[in-house]
Amino acid sequence: MHANRPPAPAGQRTDVPEADAFTRPYWEAAGRGRLLLRRCRAAGCGRAHHYPREFCPRCWSEDVVWEAASGRAVLYTWSVVHVNDLPPFSGRLPYTAAVVDLAEGPRMMTEIVGCEEGALRIGMPLAVSFRKLEGVLPEEWQAPLFVPVFRPAPPPAQGQSSPVVQPPSADGLRR
Predict the structure, then answer these.
(1) pLDDT digits (tens, 9 = 90+) for 32-79
(2) Predicted confidence band at 138 (pLDDT cuts at 50, 70, 90)?
(3) SS3 119
(4) 76 and 168 in contact (C-beta within 8 Å)?
(5) Residues contacting residue 38 through CB under 8 Å, at least 6 positions apart
(6) How far is Cα of residue 157 from the mean position of the Cα atoms in its chain?
(7) SS3 25
(8) So what's the pLDDT on residue 161?
(9) Does residue 162 carry a pLDDT above 50?
């Protein structure tokens, strides 16, 4: 808890991202199992960034566009969370909060799923999956939200450069 921020009211969910008209393409793509980034088109910049913003955080240009990410990343750092009394996290303990380096360059905060704590290694290859946020429907378009999470990447098949996204499984994840 931050010293200047009051605690969340009891029972209020703290895992729900703000879904609005600007971020709608991001959330709709996530619902289809695709991760989007924003890329600057300003001369001399061209860098991708995440989280989605209406301007480039490096050069401040407003000439930025949506771009599909490969879904590949490597683990930069992580922390296994054993205590979190905020809903719905308390029901998922322990979980692995992480920062990953996306193949396109930006770093992203996320969660690692499908991997035991002892198997985590800095630099390990990861692939994006998507977790459905149960009970969350943004007012504007009434579609469920899916948030990106990462799991260990399967070994690439001969000639394959990116993981294949599968439909949601019984556990609510798109793999």
Answers:
(1) 999 999 999 999 999 999 999 999 999 999 999 999 999 999 999 999
(2) low
(3) helix
(4) no
(5) 48, 49, 50, 52, 53, 56, 64, 65, 66, 67
(6) 24
(7) helix
(8) 54
(9) no
User: Tokens representing 84?
Assistant: 């979190």
- Whose CA is closest to 175, among 132, 122, 125, 137? 132
Token digits for 157? 């098949």
SS3 category, 130: strand
Exposed e or buried b per residue across 138-159, where buried means at least 16 C-beta atoms within 10 angstroms of its C-beta = beeeeebbbbbbbbbbeeeeee
List CB contacts of 29: < 8 A, sequence separation 6 or more.
Answer: 35, 36, 66, 68
Residue linked to tokens 């992203």: 108
Entry pTM: 0.78
Q: In whole angstroms, what is the distance from residue 101 CA to residue 73 CA?
A: 5
- Given the DSSP bridges, would you call strands 72-81 and 48-49 parallel, antiparallel or unpaired? unpaired
Average pLDDT along the chain: 82
